[in-house]
């Protein structure tokens, strides 16, 4: 059991791939089917390109705020590959890669960050909760999803994400404790990317690891190299197994790094050094996973070049489409407060409609 | 027919709906095994099992937050806040999520759930056990807020709340939980959300109240029986979205309005009713619409609470005052 | 004299007070090292050290709760909620403690503290970054709520807030943080809490606004320059306790009232102002007092936000409408 | 260091006195001056009598709600004896004994439970926060008090109490985490009395001990026999020493039991067995401490009888006084919302005054 072997009090960090993508822990190397490995890599690649472009679009004044994922792809794709279609995903707000993997479309994601609620209306079969801005509050949603799965005997596990900063929040505590008390099928993944906007990890907690917070809830915890896709995969797989066996939640701390700014409104140069950022470039999760797949001959440099070109185009055309979608209609803005508009809302809607028709807006 | 008080009506509504709808789950602090500190959920765990009726850790944010997850994943949670004064830790979830999931996801995720809570003063309780916090829910788009004043309405409204496709806050006037009994039909019935009730028709003045205040108004009428004032008493029943039509029509007829509520005055629920009425019936007003409310202070502990509570004599005086104003 | 925008005025108020009063501490999420996401506290940590200006864990309840402890133990905390939409987790502490410690302890423990937060829409932001939540503070006895609309008032009011013996919620209209600059005196001055300001005197209609809406009203006046309507514009500045006298006197003179606010309408701050005016000046009213507010929906994301925001043309239309009503 | 020796993961519980008050851990027996031992015992005795009487008064319809302390005296008196006059106390609502020890008068305590805010206006020198009803919210008050002490270089430590049920609350998490991050001089004592109203300890957390929650905050934790006054004393003393050395907060789990109902409105027979209650009678903290003092000849049976008689009288006369204090005036009810009444409050006050004068109330 990995969670025993890597009990957070032992101060060990689970790692399988080194910085060059060589397997350094052969016994733990998972046997993932080639097509899954490929999907993982493709999603990471798409995520990376989308991320870089989104920042560019924003700099060009075409995109609104955006919260970059760069550097955190492994912490998202490894776990998602360990899930099945039945499983739920409750995100925070920096999980573009995970959402893509679970079936949210790039168009929807761009539409959301472009400032349109329609971007959170995922396709019917997609079991992902919308981007969750109030820090920590998604954890109890996950616990509730998982409770419902449990008592309805659905074969579902819920994966919930949170940041290092988010672990300080009361909502984190209550949600995870609730899930633990009811032994629900849930896996909580902390993306410890070392920063909460400008606030360093040290200000989130005096605890040496965030994984050891598991002990407070009587559940297993583990620290994982969050830039190692395979390590994240195996840790999550074991947590999911535990959940399916009725053993309750597990906590995974993914040690990773936010390579970009907090959001496009943030200037990280104010609070962190270039050296720190440079050092983390060595551990780039995409490079590591790419090398692994090159070594396994699942991809080639040529296939990768083609993929990159294809995705570059895809990202550009998708964003163009989103940009062309324009403004949200008055009706859409009023239509989803309740199933039916109340008489008062109807009145307000009609008044505004009349005003906008005659006076424009 | 069964003779029930409000508390029993809550219990019966839960019981009968749970029998019909297996997706309903009921939980809250002490709401499971012992059936709640007021016993509103008594007997339900025995009847429906611990998966559907259960105690939870003391964690209001998680209570509300988990209900959101459950509602999204096929259940219909009816959760209890032990007292409305303890809902604050869950208020973040209520405002930022319960009220918004439908809109945020453009109706992909909807939240059929009910949050019940006893509220109001006059029960000689500790601090935080007596507040009237209607405004804090009524002001939030995406929420509905229901407050019954009789056993019949409690049963019918709570059923409607459980059948509503959207989240409903259900505040229960604990002061009259056991104050009186009423015959209620055995067969299934509901009382619609969003409809006020003209309790007593009249033509000189409209008095709007809800929860425990409805009875106080009724008591006040006895004090002015011989005054020859015809009072129309309206039980609002749904605070949000409230039944503007019934109230505005009434005031158009009477020309006078008094709103009576337990909440503190400033920026309270009465202000909205008064503002709405003068927007919609300004030219019908014979006197300034008035509010009779608690003063703008923290609910005092029991030895000072009498200064805070509204009594029928005050209501009677206020009615006389307003009616005496020349048109 | 210095030429400052509102954000700089916030910063200057903090700086000058901290220089005078060593008990002041300033903290919040990212408020220390980088000086806040809006840079309202920029430079303060450098000047006053990490003990007095610091970053904290993401935990709004602890931010407010710790401020209570500090205020009781000799400090004067000025804390920042990063956005008003994120104050909800701290709302429990605000309502159940900040507003109540004085009364609860019969003035043994008082809480001289300030809770600052940027609020309001129109900045094309993510969800929860645009709400106007005045009502949620104004309705709570024991709190004061201040909202400035100019750099001069920001500096003077924030100083008053820091010198107030009681807790003050200080909401900052972030939309106009950098919208314009104003000359402010170098010497110490304050603007009193609880006093509204007649920005433009007039005699046909009273328009009450605050925060970013004051400028929208001023813009509206330009649109009706040639209408021969004399508008009295009042900047409320303190929402609770609000300056009833100035408003009531104004409406007694003009006979007409329009309240303009960014908050949603129902059970919102405008209702109280309307209700108060008609209680106090009913016989002076020439037309129904009106509210021009956001509709009762969740603030839309930026691509739909224009439907939600109030624009000067709407204000102009509404003024014309009200004035056109026969007395 | 006790906190190392009794690291909660070792599953050891600190105990010095056995159920009969015999010292079973001689090396840890503290040397407490006789007058302090006597004050401890006297306060416990007064607390016990006040407790029993308060319930009686309530049953007679003379007292309002009351939250009994019986069985938890050691968990309160041990720690308080370890504090000095400078130190602060932030209570929950079941700490009558601790409050008495720190200088809140019995009259004030009765007045509070009798429903009068004046009961929370403690004497000037008393550094105790009022009864705190919203679960968990006192912890961050304590952290703030301690932060202020720290940066103002005051020689103060803050003791904060919470119940087992309260540890589930987000407010607990945030407050303790805040204190830990800033390394403030604070000691958190969980009175694990096994019940939160009708909800058993198991529903508060899946963790085997509540003391192990300390690990989540990177601070030391310890499980202590909460019915053992000496054990509670030494654990708190060490925690206070750590705090004064700038080593930050500590967490103490006092294993104890609520012998009475949750409050006088509660009927524990609904949810727990008589046997469970009976078993805990064996561990009665007052009996244990009394025997210890008898053995040490600090008290005699005769002196104890006299003390009991005296306190019985004191409690009766104090309550009588409180009862005679009657209702709270309108002025008092309005006078403490702000330092000065606002114009609106003045108006409301005057209106009500007039009403009450003419119509009575
Ligand atoms: C309750 C709440 N408070 C404050 C914020 C503002 N905020 C947005 S992101 C953020 C930092 C989050 O840090 P972390 O949890 O480490 O996640 P990361 O951004 O690193 O992914 C803050 C404070 C918020 N969204 N919600
Ligand atoms: C935030 C909040 N929620 C609910 C309550 C109602 N309540 C009062 S005491 C209590 C149980 C507390 O249990 P525990 O923390 O174990 O303390 P004990 O009563 O055992 O001393 C509850 C739920 C409250 N006071 N505050
Ligand atoms: Mg982070
Ligand atoms: Mg307990």
Structural account:
The complex is a heterotetramer, with 2 copies of chain A (361 residues) and 2 copies of chain B (327 residues). Chain A has 361 residues and is an alpha/beta fold. Chain A folds into 2 domains: 2-328, 3-Layer(aba) Sandwich (Rossmann fold), CATH 3.40.50; 329-361. Helix content of chain A is 46%, strand content 9%. Chain A has helices at 2-5, 34-59, 73-82, 96-101, 106-113, 138-151, 170-181, 201-204, 229-244, 274-281, 285-295, 301-324, 330-335, 343-359; strands at 88-90, 158-163, 186-192, 195-196, 199-200, 221-225, 250-255. Chain A has a 5-stranded parallel β-sheet, sandwiched between helices. In chain A, strands 4-5 form a two-stranded antiparallel sheet. In chain A, strand 4 and strand 5 form a beta hairpin. The longest helix of chain A has 26 residues, at 34-59. Chain B has 327 residues and is of the alpha/beta class. Chain B folds into 2 domains: 2-184, Rossmann fold; 197-324, 3-Layer(aba) Sandwich (Rossmann fold), CATH 3.40.50.920. Chain B has helices at 6-20, 44-48, 60-72, 88-98, 101-104, 134-138, 151-163, 212-223, 244-254, 269-281, 302-305, 312-324; strands spanning 2-4, 24-28, 53-55, 76-80, 114-119, 144-146, 168-173, 182-184, 197-200, 205-209, 231-235, 238-240, 257-264, 290-294. In chain B, the strands form 3 sheets. A 7-stranded mixed β-sheet of chain B has the order 3-2-4-5-7-6-12, with helices on both faces. Chain B has a 5-stranded mixed β-sheet with strand order 9-11-10-13-14, sandwiched between helices. The longest helix of chain B is centred in the first third of the chain and has 15 residues, at 6-20. Chain B is globular. The N and C termini of chain B lie far apart (47 Å). The model of chain B has no long low-confidence stretch (mean pLDDT 97). At the B-C interface, helix 4, helix 6 and helix 10 of B face helix 4, helix 6 and helix 10 of C.
Question: Quick summary of this structure?
Answer:
The complex is a heterotetramer, with two copies of chain A (361 residues) and two copies of chain B (327 residues). With 361 residues, chain A is an alpha/beta fold.
